[in-house]
UniProtKB/TrEMBL annotation:
Belongs to the OMP decarboxylase family. Type 1 subfamily. Pathway: Pyrimidine metabolism; UMP biosynthesis via de novo pathway; UMP from orotate: step 2/2. This is Orotidine 5'-phosphate decarboxylase. Its EC number is 4.1.1.23. It catalyses: orotidine 5'-phosphate + H(+) = UMP + CO2. GO terms for biological process: 'de novo' pyrimidine nucleobase biosynthetic process; 'de novo' UMP biosynthetic process. Catalyzes the decarboxylation of orotidine 5'-monophosphate (OMP) to uridine 5'-monophosphate (UMP). The active site is at D61 (for ompdecase activity), K63 (for ompdecase activity), K63 (proton donor), D66 (for ompdecase activity). It comes from Kordiimonas lacus. It comes from the Bacteria. GO terms for molecular function: orotidine-5'-phosphate decarboxylase activity.
Length: 237
């Protein structure tokens, strides 16, 4: 796999036209784009379809977190769009994750699409140990991520979302082919912003990340395609 193919650029905007323009500019410099809550709440399925028309593979990052029946219904609703990756929260528990995985597989075959990877979000990369304690989780971030990783794998998910700092332990708690989707990526010199558990692109790939999710270091650059190329180059070297 080329280093650039591992990069999914987060298009966090409410404007379909900006997302489409950026997706076009990034053609050939990244493996796909990510549409998340901000974009989908503003533009819904029509916005998704407009970006999909550029030909870019799409990671639909809606982080479903609800009872099993509701999450299954949400997956049925977005499955016809044919996303390459979908996210749910692992904290919804094993039954919710099982239903999500089953539903994604059934719906993909019904609509003639490739089965999306269903990836479980563990602990958001914007959180640290103090944030976990504040919500009543007294374990260290690493221990909680390892627990959720094992649960996600046993529940039939295709992969998980974790910070680059937990890649090694996530791999140990799952399997060699379990997809590790990794935000919290900051090239040397980039502002961390609200991200608390970060590493550089090269460090994350060396540790074993399958997909690097990178937003602002690309989208806020003067030349986003050049920024994406520089990131891919840093992974290569
Ligand atoms: O734990 C998580 C889960 C998802 N994200 C998403 O990734 C991007 C990161 O964007 P940057 O601009 O590179 O910080 C963003 O869309 C988040 O919603 C995450 O950061 N952490």
């Amino acid at each position: 796999m080329k280093p650039s193919d591992r990069i999914f650029c987060a298009l966090d905007t409410v404007e379909t036209a900006s997302a489409v323009a950026l997706a076009k500019k990034l053609q050939g410099t990244v493996g796909g784009v990510k549409l998340g809550l901000e974009f989908y709440c503003a533009n819904g399925a029509d916005g998704f379809k407009a970006v999909a028309e550029t030909g870019m593979p799409i990671f639909l990052d809606l982080k479903f977190h609800d009872i099993p029946n509701t999450v299954a219904g949400a997956i049925r609703a977005v499955a016809p769009l044919g996303p390459k990756i979908l996210t749910i929260h692992t904290q919804g528990g094993p039954e919710m994750m099982r239903r999500a995985a089953e539903t994604a597989a059934e719906e993909a075959s019904k609509h003639g699409n490739d089965k999306p990877w269903v990836a479980g979000v563990t602990i958001l990369t914007s959180m640290d140990g103090d944030d976990l304690q504040a919500i009543g989780v007294n374990d260290a971030v690493a221990d909680q991520v390892a627990r959720l990783a094992g649960l996600a794998h046993k529940s039939g998910l295709d992969g998980m979302v974790c910070s680059p700092r937990e890649i090694t332990l996530a791999r140990q708690a799952t399997a060699p082919d379990f997809k590790l989707v990794v935000p919290g990526i900051r090239p040397v010199g980039s502002a961390a912003g609200d991200q608390k558990r970060v590493m550089t692109p090269a460090e994350a790939v060396t540790a074993g990340a399958d997909v690097l999710v990178i937003g602002r270091p690309i989208t806020q650059a003067d030349d986003p395609a050049a920024a994406a190329r520089a990131i891919a180059g840093s992974i290569n070297s």
